[in-house]
Structures are given as structure tokens and as C-alpha cells.
Amino acid sequence: MIHIVCPNCHSSTPPFRHCIACNSVIGDLLNVDQLNISKAAPSPGAWFFSNLAAVLPSALRRLFFGAGRKVRVQMDAHLRRECRRIDNRDILRLAPPQGKHGLPPNKENEMTAVARVADLDRFKELAQVNSVTVIAEPSEDYKHTLVTARIRGGENEIENLCNEGCVMSLHAAGQVRPHLDRTIRETLGCEDFARDAGETEGGKGVIVGVVDFGLDFAHKNFRLPDGSTRILALWDQRAKVGEERCSGPFGYGRLFTKDDIDAALKEEDPYKALGYWTQKNSLTYTGAHGAYVTDVAAGNGNGSGCPGVAPEAGIVFVDASSAVLAAEGSHAVGNTFGDSAQLLEAVKFIFDYAEDRPCVVNISLGTNGGPHDGTSPLEEGFDRLVSRKPNRAVVIAAGNSFGKSLHATGRVAGGEFVDLKWRIPRFDPTGNEIEVWYSGDDRFTAELSDPAGRRVARVKPGCVWDNGVCGSGALLVVNRLRDLKNGENGENTINVILDRGAAAGDWTLRLRGDCVEDGRFDAWIERDERGQSKFIKPTDKSYGAGYYAISNECTLSSIACGRRSIVVSSYDAYEPDLPLSETSSAGPARGEREFQQPTVCAPGENILAAQSGTLVLRHRQSGTSLAAAAVTGAVALILSEARRDLTAEEIRGILIEAAHKAGSSGGEWDPGYGYGRVCASEAIATVRALTVDTAQASVASSSGD
Fold first, then answer.
1. CATH number, domain at 433?
2. 318 lies in the same domain as 448
3. pLDDT of 282-307, one tens digit each?
4. Would you call the peptide bond into 598 cis, given omega within 30 degrees of 0 as the criterion?
């Protein structure tokens, strides 16, 4: 049977109506031509040779096709996986709807990528490149251009693209997911966020941008007293097949203006009238994640009676889902995925829409794969976008990975090894991935053994294993050496990607120290709400001569380590000692840095937020998503009160200076609390004092003249 790549979660799935991994609706995209089904059946010989790789037992496949093979080190593991799927005749990437109303204008078998390029004009001319969007142009700090693009080609073509002189680095767009604790608690108690900022303008004149999944635009907390919407723009990055609607930015999705939404709100079914649906709350689903976040940051309480932090701010929302169909009920935490390239395009769109108006963007999404040191293209993009103009900020949720055994760290000695134990749960319908980062001066060989103790892959530095099959799932292991031209952190990476169907049980990833100068490493397991694998610690000391520890440090989302982002962890405001939330991710970020992340913490337990599908009700949710939203609202208050321009660094500094230090370990910075608990009232007082000082300095300067 021919399999397809789900456009939502990127896993391979049989061509059913729903993806078997994430349950996204994909049936309407299937057609006879794409599945290569015809009345004339292929000849037996043609079938045999086209399906040879699939029918040979794994042992014969390794003998026939070889083990790991030497590759150019420029291509990252996720690009290689996508290329393998394109080259495999039995795995088909669906062509999304074309034109201005569809998803990004990919052709069949195109991939979305983020690139650093030295020569933009030359890059656009390359045959493999299509639909280039400039995120940030060269500057004093960055000599290259940061772009998103859609690229096309098999493995050889993409490797040639990576080796082009104008390409400094090229990364497949990674998936991002909501940071929401899936447990809904009905705890009663005090208000979720102390709105003690005194008399403020409530964020008036400020744009609050939210990039998330699902916004219940009909909820009265997002409407004015006359019933009209407070939402200035809503860009739905999804596509609904066959629907003719207004065009979205960058040539895909649908952009709804305030007038579009107001017209829909006058209809009996505003969701159908607009052509935009969000998940309602039920026993199965936790509703529209973006509605919770937007309400805490900027809801006005017109329906619930309790406003968010910045109730007078304008709202611009981007639905970042990569789900192909905007079908009713398509949003649910755990099966909703976004794309890091689309995320960069969303943030750029919001800042471009705001123009010279003060603007803060909330991102309560994240992922685990990456260097966790601020050097990823996504974090670079955020840093550069907030630096282009004053009065801009990006607020990011720290993540909810604390205590979940998703990070391991240790040291490998020369000539020795360390065994990482990796447990795959039973009945896991999804794929699984480990990513290891280690010094560019070291050389580790990666060896992978299945739960039965059989070695299934041995990959030397600079090589890739892409022919293995484990159970009914495919295996990819990439041992990638640093590329000194790419402007990144100069470290080596090992990626192990198990497709859906890999055997459940305890796998072993052995890191063998071939040549060791440093020996330290960090490893992360990718998030997976539908079947989370984890590291386990062996009890028999069988992990080798080196050591490793399952660590709760460095558990921040990998997009939450940038230098100019405001990263927010979560604490429980209902407990007298204000403890950190049990799952709130902790720093530090990796590497030598002038400051650390998270920046501050905010209430994130049992937060009241708009309940989608109710028009007026709220209910309680938990997670760093809500903590970040509270800080986003606080930043909107700061920007509204400021009477002079503020840089991203100054906005961050005001939050740090105003934060309550109580509750941290007593130092300047704490891995869990950051620089302290956010205090909106102190931040407002600080920015007002800053404004007065600036005015007095201006008067003194004029008098001196």
C-alpha cells in the first residue's frame, strides 16, 4: 500500500480519511492521480523492482543496500528525512491546495525550509528554490539574510543546494505545539492574575499579536459593547478546499479583516459565515488554545465580567496550524501542529501590520529539538525582528517539560562509551526522535540497539544510516559534523528518528568516544502528547564507563533561548509559598551568555480563560502558555504607558527590574523563576519614572542650549 505524509504531523500514514497518528482530516486531499492508481495494473516485474526496498527483510536490506554511508555534512536530519520520503515511491507527499486560498504555495513534494543566505538574488535563482520570504535583511550584527522558502528536489538536489556558495545554512521547518498542561483543574480560588497596576490605559494604542491555534472570535471577551469585534486582523494559515475567500499574506491562507469578522458576527452562524472554525470544549478536547492565550493577554471581560491584562489593546491573531482542512472540530491540543517557517512568517506579518504602532507578540508554542543556546534560525529571526524598530517585543512560553525525563546530559571519555536508555511506550501511534548535541572538537560514533538487544545501526561521524527498518517502522540516524560556514554554534549533532511502528520497549543509543577533547553532551527527546517516549536510568550501571544523568535543567523549549526574547515560566499563585508549577520548564540555556533564560515567571496554574463555544464563559487552564500571556499583557501596558521609544532590551530590563525576587533561590537569576515573579504595577511605575526622567533630561538639555 502506498503511504502518504500527513500535512499536519508529517508522519507517514495509510491513505485513510484521517491520519492514524494525529487524527487530522486528510481524506479530501486524496485523489486517484496522486496515489498513482490506474485501471492498468503495473507488470509484476515493474512492481517488484519499484517495491524491492519495502519487501526485503531488514537483514537482507542492510546487506543489499549497505549500512551507513558518507554524506556531505551540510544537510540536517529533518531535510534528509523529507528527501528520503520524496525519493521513496511508496511514500507520497500530498500537494496542498494551490493559489491564494491554500496552504503555502508548495508544489507536490516541496518542503518548507528556513535558510541563512549570503547572496539573496543568487539564492532566488536556484532551480530548487521557490516562494522566498525575507524575514530579516543584513545588518551590523548579521551579515546574512534570513529567509523562509519552499524547496524541491530529491536527496542529491538538496545536498547540491546546501553546498551552494550563497547558502550558509538550510534547515527543514520544524513542528511546534501548544504549551498547555492537558489536565483541566476546576480548582476555585483567588483571581488568576493580580491586576494591581493602578490607573492605566489598558494597553490602548498597542497591538497584541498572538500566534497560536484556534481563536473563538465570537466570544464576547473579544468584542466591543456594540457587538463588533476587537480583532483587527485574523490570518488563518490553514486552507479549506474549494472555498473562495480573501487572500492571506505571503500567498497562502486567508486573511480576515475587522470588516469581514463584523459581517460574520451579524449572521446566525458566524463561524460558517466567516469560514473559520475552532474546537469547542468537550470531555475529549481542551478547546481553542489561542482563545485562552488571547483572553488572558487582552480579553476585555465583555462576556465573562473579568478582563484580561490589557483589555484596551488591539488584537491581531495568526492561526499557525499546518492542518490542511479548516474543518469544524479540527483543533485539539495533541493533534495540532505548526511549522517553524510559518511561525516566522506569522511574527513578521504581525510586526508589518503594526507598522510604527507599539506591538508585542505572544508565542505559547514550542518544540524540544534544537541547540538550546539561542543560535537556531527561529530564535535569530525573533531577535532580528524585534531589533528592526523600537517598541517591539516577543514573549515566549518556557514550556512544560520539567520532570518528564526528556533531557539527559553527561560526558563520554575517549575510547569509552555511554548508553542512553530510551523507552518507547506500548501502542504508540506516533514516531519518536532523539537529538544529541556535542562539541565540534569531538567525534562520537552512534550505535542504536532495539529492545531485544540487537544492534540495528552503527553510524560513524559524518555518516548517515537511512536504510534500516525496525518492526514496521523506518529508521534514520544522522551523525552530522559541524559546518564552519553556517554561522551557527559549531557543534556536532546526532539525530535518531524512528517512524511510527517501531518496537515498544527500552532502546539503547550508545555514544562511543572515538576522539574526545571535551566529551560533554546534551540530548533531548522530542515532545509527543499522543505517545511520549522518555529517558530512563538503568539500575545495573550498564550505561558504560562515562556517565549521564536525566536532568531537569535545560528543559526550556528550544525556541525559548533567544537573547532578545522575553521567556516566561509558571508558578502557582494559589499556594502561600508561590511554588513553581510542577511541569514548568527550567533553564539555563546552553553556552556562555551574558544573561540567561527564563526571564521572569508569572501565574500559570488554574488560570481563568475564555471557554470557546460559550460566548461568555471562562474555565481554568494551566501551563506556561497562560503565564506567557499574562506577561504579554503586562508588556502591552508598559508600551501604552511609555512616552518614549523603548528597545527590546529596555522592555526586558523593565520587567526584570520590577520583578519580585522573593521565591527564587536568592540570587540574581534562578533556573526556574528567572529574575523573579512579574509585577505589573512595579513595571508601570518604572516606565512612568523613566518617562519623567527622559522629559527632565530633555528640558535640562534645552536650558543648557
1. 2.60.120.1290
2. no
3. 544 555 789 989 999 999 999 888 89
4. yes
Residue range 56-83: mean pLDDT, rounded: 56
Average pLDDT (469-484) is 75
Statement to judge: residues 241 and 333 lie in one domain: yes
Cα separation, 272 vs 280, in Å, equals: 14
Q: How far is CA 416 from CA 512, 515, 541, 545, in A?
A: 6, 10, 14, 6
- The CA–CA distances, whole Å, from 547 to 190, 492, 543 equal 46, 19, 7
Distances in whole angstroms, Cα of residue 344 to Cα of each of 38, 78, 135, 453, 671: 41, 18, 7, 42, 27
Query: 696: exposed, middle or buried (C-beta count within 10 Å: 0-12, 13-18, 19+)?
Result: exposed
- CB burial of residue 393 (10 Å; 0-12, 13-18, 19+): buried
| Residues 209, 211, 215, 217, CA torsion sign | positive
Distance of CA 225 to the CA centre of its chain: 35
Q: Are residues 274 and 324 in the same domain?
A: yes
Print the domain residue range for 509: 407-550
Element spanning 54, H or E = helix 52-55
CA distance 324 to 339: 12
Cα(573)–Cα(605) distance, integer angstroms:
7
CA atoms of 355 and 226, how far apart (whole Å)? 27
Q: Regarding beta strands 110-117 and 145-152, do their DSSP bridges make them parallel or antiparallel, or are they unpaired?
A: antiparallel
In angstroms, the CA 557 to CA 397 distance is: 8
Query: In Å, what is the CA distance from 470 to each residue of 4, 37, 452, 614?
Result: 19, 28, 11, 47
Q: CA–CA separation, 400 vs 76, rounded Å?
A: 26
Last-in-domain residue among 524, 550, 576? 550
What is the reported pLDDT for 123? 96
| 465, β-bridge pairs | 477
Summary count for the chain: helices (H), strands (E): 14, 34
Map grid coordinates 536650558 to a residue.
703
Q: How many domains does the chain have?
A: 4
* Residue recorded with cell 486517484: 32
pLDDT in tens, 70-90: 444 457 788 887 777 666 555
Helices (H), 355-452: 377-387
Is residue 199 situated within a structural domain? no
Per the listing, cell 491584562 goes with 309
* Predicted TM-score of the model (pTM): 0.85
22, three cell numbers: 494525529
User: Which cell numbers in the block locate residue 321?
Assistant: 496550524
Inter-CA distances, 572 with 187, 531, 540, 569, Å: 12, 27, 38, 11
Amino acid, single-letter form, for residue 660 = H
Positive or negative CA dihedral for 10, 16, 22, 25?
positive
Question: What CATH code is carried by the domain that includes residue 133?
Answer: 3.30.70
Backbone phi, then psi, for 407, in 5-degree steps?
Answer: -130, 135
